[in-house]
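Good morning N.,

You mentioned wanting to compare the apo and holo forms, so I went ahead and generated the holo version with N-(aminocarbonyl)-beta-alanine. This is what I fed in:
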Amino acid sequence: MTTPVKKVPIHLQSSQNRLLIKNGTIVNEDETTDEDIYIEDGIIKQMGTNLIIPGGTRVIDARGRYILPGGIDPHTHFDFEFMGTKTADSFYSGTKAAVAGGTTMIIDFVFPKKGESLLDAFYEYRQKADGKVCCDYSLHVVLPHWSTQIKRDMEILTKEHGINSFKMFMAYDFMLNDAELYSAFEQCQNLGAVAQVHAENGSIIAKNAERLVAQGIVGPEGHELSRPEEVEAEAVNRACVIAKQLNKDKKKVNAPLYLAQITTDKSAEILKNHISEGNLRAFGEVEVSAIGVDAPIKSNPNFVTSPPIRSNSDVSYKLMNYLASDVLQLTGSDNCTFNKSQKEMGRGDFRKIPNGVNGVEDRMSVIWEKGVNTGILTPCRFVAVTSSNAAKIFNLYPRKGCIAVGSDADIVIWNGNATRTISAQTHRQAVDFNIFEGMTCHGVAEYVIVNGRVCLDDGQLRVVEGYGRFVETPVFPPYVYNPQELDSIKPIREHINDVDLAPKLNKIKLIDDPCPTPTFPDSYVSTPTMRGMRPEGQRNIQESTFSLTEELDPERKSSIRVRNPPGGKSSKFW
Ligand code: URP
Ligand code: ZN
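and this is what came out, ligand included:
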């Protein structure tokens, strides 16, 4: 499929499309290195020390900071009509908030309305999102029922529209039965797509809910009561069993399975057992709501999401440990926000509370706080569960999900020591409350670079509506379908133009712990700002009276003093 060429609005054109990030600690999922990164036209062009770069390049000093691949949120719902209402967050406000929190790519869901074809729904979503998104995005497609038409449309979507994953629900009134799930998994297997499931036993939930309502339990507490942990775990088990049946045909590639929204250790244990028995390639995603909410929430409709946030407070700690040990691989937000007034739709009947909560903006900070700050995740594993594994599973790696020469310059400069307190008063999402209200997190994005453009600049948000692109996801992701041959997706870590070459590269690579937590000298930690580091061979602008940030930002033209930097003008925007 040819993606429509976007016209660059005139106000976005800039003379600056080059960026050097110096002195930081690069964290990839497999190693940490102390190297500089040179970016041009949205792509990482060089990595190493003493890089030779063109004059006029903007320099950001990342001393004492981690440099992370931008977060990839594999599970969002923006501009989504659901349960009789529409999400508070649009593709604009949602991706703006994502960027503010250090996420540089989202994957949303095409959700066909009743009677709508998959293809029409896909076109509708492209129209809703293109022109709105502030960062790159891809799409999964939900199968609202099973039919030969759906089967055909899946083929068209994979072959012509860059879709490589489909989601089947085992709950809600659009759930598929077991035979339909089997057929849908099989078609995913034939096409080289990823079969995703929302695993909860919908029939049992409906019966439980009926019983609770008959007993007079109609408030929000009924939501979790009707969807107990075992109802999720049963569906996880059933989905694994179904996928395994397909894998009995040895002439075919293994049918992979992606379990979205794991909220209980019971599900994780089942997944672990199935995987260790063999004959199944399966992945588990945990939502940041399941990790970050530990206040009592049972009677608050604002926390209603499915599967529910568990009131058993041990669960989040256990899930984090499953993420650390690779039983579970990714974190998402399942961001699906409804304002307080919309949540009121379910007053008197919990079944009518629109399901969904926020998370896209805070996912990175909350996972850092509960994972790295507690010592459960190394920074490398944090990168794996917030970015690289999503890129690998949906076949975006190594273009996304890593910092390597040739990769998209989706980068976060992260202060692991700084703190911020989450609040709806200050968040960038459109929704009028925040489920993490009052939570203080270590781990703050200071700069967020999206395709080479500095969109969060020393804490100042400067996103551009429509700047993001739709990114096609090719079928047969090697990580999913061919894990024996992962060399084919190894990123380039050559250090081109590095005058001192390899011996000088300060690579941390230990056998026992490949991803140690780097320690910074105390003096680094207190660095108040990182702007305006001196480009090699040029005058020290930090010592002068103006800042590079101001000089080169197209949206702050009033303070531009040098319009044509020494490296010359470019028509590209950054
Ligand atoms: O409650 C949720 N998660 N709402 C969004 C729809 C879904 O289940 O993914
Ligand atoms: Zn969802």
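Confidence is low (pLDDT under 50) at residues 1-15, 496-574.

Happy to go through it together on a call whenever suits you.

Best,
F.
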